[in-house]
Amino acid sequence: MVENYIKRKKTFFKIGRYRIEFIDRVDEIKKLMEWIDTGAPFIYFIYGPEGCGKTALLSHFLNIVGDDIIPIYINAIERSNPESALISPNILKIKNIIKDVVGESGGFIGPALAQGVIAVIDKVSSIVRLKDKCLAIMIDDVVQSIGLGKIEGYIKWLYESMPKISEKYGLKSITMIATTSEGISRRLIERHAYSITYLIWNLLKGDYIRLAEQLDPINKNIIEETWRLTGGNPRTLIQIALAYKWNIEKWLKGIEERLNETIIKIRSLKLEKELQKIIENIDIIYLKPDKNIFKLREILEKENLIIYKYKTTLRETRIKENKEIGIGKYYAWQIPAYMKILERKYNSSKSE
Questions:
Q1: What torsion do the CA atoms of 173, 178, 183, 187 make, to the nearest 10 degrees?
Q2: What is the pTM of this model?
Q3: Same domain, 160 and 260
Q4: How many C-beta atoms lie closer than 10 Å to residue 2's C-beta?
Q5: In which band, very low, low, confident or very high, does the pLDDT at 99 lie, cut at 50, 70 and 90?
């Protein structure tokens, strides 16, 4: 039973001067546990908006799994911190494992561990008993580390390695999970039957409010305002609270500055009318595509501004449409603030 794998524990994260409790995600954790319980020979590929909580979910998972599961977490984009790059509870010789796998080359730790995941498993097997255990390998931000051009081959390599690893160590099951916030990779991965993609989304409004209340908000009105601008994105909420001290206009100005080059590119390609259509109804990308709409979609996806969302989530639901915060049936803005800032810039350019 799935419940046998779960320890009833809370997870807390130290963020600045705050000790933040991990919020909800009960259904998502149950789904991860079901994968482990089933032991299906596929690569589970989780994608979702940047900052929606993928890493926090995996960190919570590491904290609550029972003794029958051996979890190995690899932060594929970590450059130098061994404590962040490789995590496996109850394994005390993590630095030795990293040294053996990465070597003394001085390269980035995370990418080397992702490429050397089989060697990592081998080193772990010399420290803990793997026979009759459930092995869960989680590779976070894999696309950013491996690269779009190599991700298909990498995922296929992981898939083909699974039965060999299971037989070599006498595992009860092996589960491979990869995550990304990079939307273009979804189309590449879904071309192959050896991977299954799931969507993870921003926090539900009630959970978002619970998180916000832990960050000393100025008042309840400001929580509502950040909800409308972030769509429930937890990392963005934390950024507003800590980096901008709840100064929303200052935060929006920072995003506007970050989007300036994207706006210049859209103007140079004469895609302003297409941008207006997408701002008015983001599903135009799916419902009435043409060459210019596709061209603009590629720009917006590459910049992590929009995401395809017509997928089953880890909660086994669909994300409801909410035009006010830029969520269509098929596509959504990763946070509503992107839509609002691009709309503001578009309107200002018309009046010039």
A1: -40
A2: 0.90
A3: no
A4: 15
A5: confident
| DSSP per residue, 246-299 | T-HHHHHHHHHHHHHHHHHHHHHTT-HHHHHHHHH-TTHHHHS--HHHHHHHHH
Alpha-carbon span 242 to 222, nearest angstrom: 14
Residue 270 and residue 176 in one domain = no
pLDDT band at 183 (very low <50, low <70, confident <90, very high): confident
Per DSSP, the three-state class of 87 is: strand
67 burial level (CB within 10 Å; 0-12, 13-18, 19+):
exposed
Total domains in the fold of the chain:
2
| H or E element in which residue 150 lies | helix 148-169
Indicate the Cα dihedral angle 300, 58, 76, 93, nearest 10°.
170
* CA separation for the pair 112, 108 (Å, rounded): 7
Half-sphere CA count of 120, side-chain side, radius 13 A: 29
Instruction: Answer whether residue 206 is part of any domain.
Output: no
| Most distant pair of Cα atoms in the chain: their distance | 69
What is the C-alpha radius of gyration for the chain, rounded to an integer number of angstroms?
A: 21
Q: Are 241 and 208 in contact (CB under 8 A)?
A: no
Are 177 and 35 contacting, i.e. CB atoms less than 8 angstroms apart?
A: yes
